[in-house]
Write the structure tokens for this entry.
Amino acid sequence: MFRLRSGVDWFISTIGEIIIYPTFGQSQYNISSYQLTYTYILKLLESGISTSSIANYVSKFPNDKVIVPFFTFLVNKNLIVNRKTSSCLSAWQLELYSRQIAAFEQIEPPQDSVKMQELLAISRVCIIGCGGIGAPVAEMLAASGVGFFTLIDGDQVELSNLGRQIAYSVDDLHTNKVDALSRRLRKINPLCKIRRVPLFMDAANAAALLKDANIIVVAADSPMPDLLNWIELLCSASCLNTPYIVASNSWPTIRVGPLFLPKEGQSYSNYRKSLKYRWPQAALYEQECSNKQISKGTTVCACYATGSLVANAVINYLTRSPHMLAGQSLLLDINTLERKTPFTSGEGVTQ
């Protein structure tokens, strides 16, 4: 079934031209030789048309020299897609994620948007730390259709959490965060499977907790840098090769990434060497911050801004999108929207 690709808008201008204006890419197409056949084809493609229907039209109007060249033009410019007629997703899931699938369809270069959604459904995400960043990441990934979660956090919900961690409510006070967040995720996505781990990760239990994950989100603030050293040891120095992404926020700056891909030689230790080269006191500062988390200010806006960008980076990785934050970190002042200079793979993140 052929139809217009999501994001392809068209209209007839005041001078009679057909203007095709995709929201993706850099091009606008003006067709000055107006033909009724063009509008007929475009209207059919808005709802979908089968190959047999196109063949029937050509056979009925053999003298129409417009349809085949115009259809070929649309194909060559990636303005139409051949929609899949079968999927491992249910009709309920396809409707639930229809807007996201439409967004995937607008990625350049063109991707199989339904396949991307199917990949999310079978993905396993491990989230270490279910607080100001980990909780919103989990919520957004559940809403996006991720099928399996491992939630790791030894904390309970406290009153001071509720001002920025809106996954929780007063009804969750003094309960394990992983239990409360699990209930929240199942309300968002009743199909997702959740493994709850009400423990803090350490060197002894890390291997058992991180196994089977397709990607790890490091959203805990402590103990740093030990936590990242344990993860790197398992993900880089073993056969796991599991990607991991880090994030933090220190008002008003949020940091997303890097996303480390061990298979490509990217690691936290290399990133840290790069950071230390730029600022020799980086390691001491990191240790001091880890010990004084309670003195750091943040807001619900900073937490969810960070969480949304992390979730987007995770989705891009899991769906094999060409747009990934691999080997880079984004630092953004959410007050001024000023982007600060990130550390890239060319600055020592990769080996």
About this structure: The mean pLDDT is 86. The first strand starts at residue 2 and ends at 4. The longest helix spans residues 300-318.
